Amino acid sequence: MKEETTHTEGLLRSEKQHGDFEFGIYTLGDLCPSPVIGQMPNARERMKEILAAARLADEAGIDIFGVGEHHRLDFVISSPPVVLAAIAQATKNIRITSATTVLGTSDPVRVFEDFSTLDLLSDGRAEIIAGRGAYVESFPLFGFELSDYKALFLEKLGMLLDLNKDERVTWEGAFRTSLQNAEIAPRPLQTELPVWVGVGGTPQSAELAGSFGAGMALAILGGDPARFKPLVDAYRTAGIKAGHKADALKIAITSHGYIAKTAEQAKQEYYPHYANYVSQFMGGNARGEHLSREQFELMASPMNALAVGSPEQLVEKILAQHELFGHHRFMAQFDIGGIPFPKVAASIELLAAKVMPVVRRELRKSAAQTV
Questions:
Q1: Phi, psi of 295 (to 5 degrees)
Q2: Which helix (H) or strand (E) element contains residue 333?
Q3: 93 alpha carbon, distance to own chain's centre
Q4: ω into residue 80 within 30 of 0, thus cis?
Q5: Tell me, what's the pLDDT at 127?
Q6: Is the pTM value of this prediction over 0.85?
Q7: To which H or E segment does residue 254 belong?
Q8: What would the pLDDT profile of 278-319 be if each residue is shown by its tens digit?
Q9: Burial 250-274 (b: 16+ CB within 10 A, else e)
């Protein structure tokens, strides 16, 4: 396995060129009983799997690894900077990011200082994906009003971006004490930390990301990807209107996914775990619903966004989405619903060895033909 991984790493480094399309994987660290054996992983085992996935992704030449933030007992990660600091010491090249930082219930000063520290520890590999969060348990936990959900995020995103620009900041807002020429330390190794905004599905969020000139990480978890095109257009329009250069407006597409040697193997292995995840975390239990195999087959079909299939099918889906969005990065969440780590590891290796080189090669060919 080590010799194969080393060969894959060398192949990918020779394939990858400056400005190439980027690939990443991310995890939310869900704690979900296996639908096959019924066993619940413990938090320590889950954390070890996350570190092992990051090491494998790094060795395989994948560009970025992200970890999410939740504050409930069925997720293992509540502090992305701590987990990412451990990953930084276990890896060499892969960029590391939150996915996402729930900014509305965080102190932007602490977020910036934590990720600046991470940037120093990782030799300049840190990024932030900031979002409002799909869950709201952090609001009462940290003493915030849910009625301020949108206003909190708007104010704190602006503050975070101000902190990123200057080492001394004067700032005033509605939800936090003001700053008067405050020293913001440490400074990152990078000139500025790359900041992306996680967007779920509203034009307002896309426009906000564009107006601030931040990257947009667009979650497409199901359905026809074409219905998300207006969000991409809204993001770019708002960014250009605010005076940002078009080539500085970066887009990442994030998706649930799984890869196996054949499409049938991928669907057969992934379905029970995905149905398990949908039931526990995506509202299925609350509605008394279970994802049927027929529904899953539709979600995984070529015209829909779920990134499940053979390497060839993943290549086709990513290239088709690139035709729609012209995005710069694709990130997949493989480890959900209690899926065993060896199967996650196999997906990571197939992404690196069979999907990434082909997508990059096809995109380079397409770019050369348009020059």
A1: -65, -40
A2: strand 329-333
A3: 17
A4: no
A5: 98
A6: yes
A7: strand 251-259
A8: 988 886 554 557 899 999 999 999 889 999 999 999 999 999
A9: bbbbbbbbbbbeebeebbebbbbbb
